[in-house]
């Protein structure tokens, strides 16, 4: 699939020498949802700001829909919708006029049906004649989303769109995102709620200290880097792992009533579970229950960032 956003060696160095972006290269495919993950200060917002024309890169190139973000700024920006972290709205303007104005800024003809559709999707229709200063924080966030979508962008950047908002807005937000993806809109998401990225993203990009650590299909990443854990609940607690089980590198729970065994399903010698269960029986341990779990995307992300910082 063709890349609708192409980033090659993008750099941003601020006065004083701080390098916010250090040669970032990234291709974002048309119609995908890409989760851009990284700790605070990693460069996520700087990268989005550069692509949206809010800040000017100091090196490298980037194109949106084939349009250079610097030399063809207006054409590139017309393809982009942005939901920023900060809530900045004209306090005395009505909701519906705020959204209409955003559409007009991009030279789009008036479309009341589209505006009504967006406001209804975001549960704002009943508030359409309210001034934005009268809205709650969550409602203001909804207005930002409507403003970002009203000119029908092909690429949507969501920079921490659900930070500090209620569960209902998150549900509405992801319902809108799923609809946009079905229509072929490309979505780039940054979030601190990594379980959201795990639920909706197609691919994951991890950025730290201004550099991209990896870009990979979410399922492939979790299969490659995720580890599985077998938890063995014991009928009778034990004080320590028996010496005969030492080479299995088992973890004993603080209460002594459970053992955890980490394994890789791709191992050449198998998982080792069958041999472990036989060894447990040989040591006279009686099992009460067993169950497995797999690493989450959050655990993988934390491990990558720690490894990069080492």
From TrEMBL:
PROSITE patterns tied to this protein: ABC_TRANSPORTER_1, ABC_TRANSPORTER_2
Keyword ATP-binding on entry: yes
Keywords of this entry: ATP-binding, Nucleotide-binding, Transport
Keyword Transport: yes
Domain ABC transporter: 5-234
Molecular function GO terms recorded: ATP binding; ATP hydrolysis activity
Protein name: ABC-2 type transport system ATP-binding protein
Organism whose genome encodes this protein: Roseovarius litoreus
